[in-house]
Amino acid sequence: MLFNTNDQLPSIVESFNKIIGTKDLSFYFNKNSLVMDTDKITIKLLENYVEIEPTEEIQRQVWPGSEADIVPAHAIVVAAHNGGVVLGAYDGDKMVGFAYGFLGMVPSAAGQYIKHCSHQVGVLPEYRAYGVGFKLKRAQWQVVRSQGVDLITWTYDPLLSLNANLNIAKLGAVCNTYKREYYGEMRDGLNVGLPSDRFQVDWWVNSERVQKRLSREARKKLDLAHFLAAETFKVNTTHLSEAGWEVPEEENVHLPPEDDERPTILMVEIPTDFLALKAADPELGLRWRMHTRAIFEALFARQYLVTDYVYLSGNHARGYYVLSYGDSTLGV
Q1: Best exposed site among 75, 83, 92, 159 by fewest CB in 10 Å?
Q2: What is the pTM of this model?
């Protein structure tokens, strides 16, 4: 059921109650909100301007430095009243995060079909360690499924390890699309000075892979040691600079063969804290952008799919994307 007319809005939450139930989730809908039973964070479905207006201030804090890039509340309200989904995360009466998306179309050989385009998920810095982003995405997953939509897409910077861990490892999204300079020259504090390259991820909300990751008994997360022990094919290598930052070694990039000898699984290393790295050394940040752009475009052209992100914590932390050949791992 698609909620895309104003006269349907009053019954959205009641309809979700009937469709969703509470059997396999740690939250439930009531008349006014979607309440987490794991902590004090409340997730609410937002519909009107007064509820949505605080998203502007959260955008200023999450993506500081460019007032022109703020999505105005009135535009988000229009999306909410025409099939879009807007969710707010609250600590008491204070909005601490939000998720905003709208309906889009995907071309295919059989014609176009509807998807949900998740445009923004923002969480105040002081709340990022509490899983608020995951809770917003989990609520979004449930709402979009109830609309009868199978696919959610969004973009993110592939060099951000925290986003990689959330989007790929925890949520179960996959990626085989690399978009160069997707947003043009960005002006906010997080993105200024670098090409705005992005992964576009696909989140197949009814797939076994996603169901497993969002269930109460989610799969045990693999760590880097599992893949190193299996001698997984590593595409790139790095060394540490005198300042302690990961430096890519362009001369040691090893792309897989395009024949029957190609490895089924391989790994690509990225920095564990790219935001700090590029702030300290912008030239090194740009070097990482160009380094990984070439690698991912080549691997996607060879039919590889990003299916996981693994890391090793410690004084010399390491983080790797895991890519699989074809789509045989979509069910895991």
Answers
A1: 92
A2: 0.85
